[in-house]
Amino acid sequence: GNKRKTMVSTAFLSVTAILRDWAPAYYSIGYANQSAKNNEAAKTAYEQYIAKVKPEEVDAAKQNLAYAYFFIAFLDKDTNPEKAKEYIAKSLQYDGSNQDALNLSKSLMN
């Protein structure tokens, strides 16, 4: 229910306040929001995550980056197809084997 969602968000917000520059915190927030079907909040968190990953962390973060880019591209495919194309290309750059991303990429090329 909503009460649990608020508790989850509050817990994350306090963690995030401490770890403002720690990218995985934003990925977790994105994932939690997505699980709660709160897609806009998830998208915002994934965008924060992408922005916070440091160059030296990219190698270790490839799967998560690929997913974050995919999720945003998926949400933007109807409203902002150009951005979606750009993001799905980045997603596939990090993980070229994700079937969902490949399918989305194909559908955006049409």
Residues in helix, %: over 70%
Number of strands: 0
Low-confidence stretches: none
Helix vs. strand class? mainly alpha
* Element-by-element helix/strand order: HHHHHH
The DSSP helix count reads 6
**Rg on CA atoms, Å:** 14 Å
Tell me what portion of residues adopts beta-strand conformation: under 5%
Q: Mean pLDDT, rounded to whole units?
A: 87
For the sheet with most strands, the description reads: none
Describe this structure in words.
By secondary structure, this protein is mainly alpha-helical. The termini are far apart. It has helices spanning 2-18, 23-35, 39-52, 62-76, 81-94, 99-109.
Topology:
Elements: H1 2-18, H2 23-35, H3 39-52, H4 62-76, H5 81-94, H6 99-109
Helix pairs in contact: 1-2, 2-3, 3-4, 4-5, 5-6
Offer a few descriptive terms.
single chain; 110 residues; mainly alpha; 0% strand; globular
Short account of what is shown:
By secondary structure, the chain is mostly helical. The protein has helices at 2-18, 23-35, 39-52, 62-76, 81-94, 99-109.
